């Protein structure tokens, strides 16, 4: 039998305990804040054409394209209660795609497509910000999602 120093035993034990707390916290946060890891979709150049598709009254599909220093479409209008599938890509460097109120945090990477689904229940203006430094115009890179109280409306 190998003899283990009691102090070492304590350290190993407390490390394992601490790691369990970390893992538990992540699982707890995932449930509580319903955070999801974005999906990675197989690449297809079609995703580089910015657009908003209305799939039905409250179901939308957005191809969001980031580039220096804008998001296209820059202005997304949807009615409250909508669920939006966002497919995100970049035309050039790495950009961020952050909707703070919705806990959306994605990276726009050239040559790859990231996807997430967001539900907008409350009317209001949700700002999309770029949170990856992407050059001189980084701090001005913004888009918005306008959630209207009534139904209808979409823009380019
Ligand atoms: Cu795009 Cu920072």
Features:
Immunoglobulin-like; binds dinuclear copper ion; 2 domains; alpha+beta; 1 helix; 156 residues
Blueprint (SSEs and pairs):
Elements: H1 6-32, E1 39-41, E2 51-56, E3 59-67, E4 70-72, E5 75-79, E6 82-90, E7 95-99, E8 104-108, E9 113-120, E10 124-129, E11 142-148
Parallel strand pairs: 3-6, 5-11
Antiparallel strand pairs: 1-9, 2-3, 3-4, 6-9, 7-8, 10-11
Please characterize this protein's 3D structure.
With 156 residues, the chain is of the alpha+beta class. The protein has two domains: 1-35; 39-148, Cupredoxins -  blue copper proteins (Immunoglobulin-like), CATH 2.60.40. It is 17% helix and 42% strand. The protein has one helix spanning 6-32, and strands spanning 39-41, 51-56, 59-67, 70-72, 75-79, 82-90, 95-99, 104-108, 113-120, 124-129, 142-148. Strands 1, 2, 3, 4, 6 and 9 form a six-stranded mixed sheet that branches. The chain has a three-stranded mixed sheet with strand order 5-11-10, with no helix packed on it. Strand 2 and strand 3 (59-67) form a beta hairpin. The longest helix is centred in the N-terminal third of the chain and has 27 residues, at 6-32. Bound molecules: dinuclear copper ion.
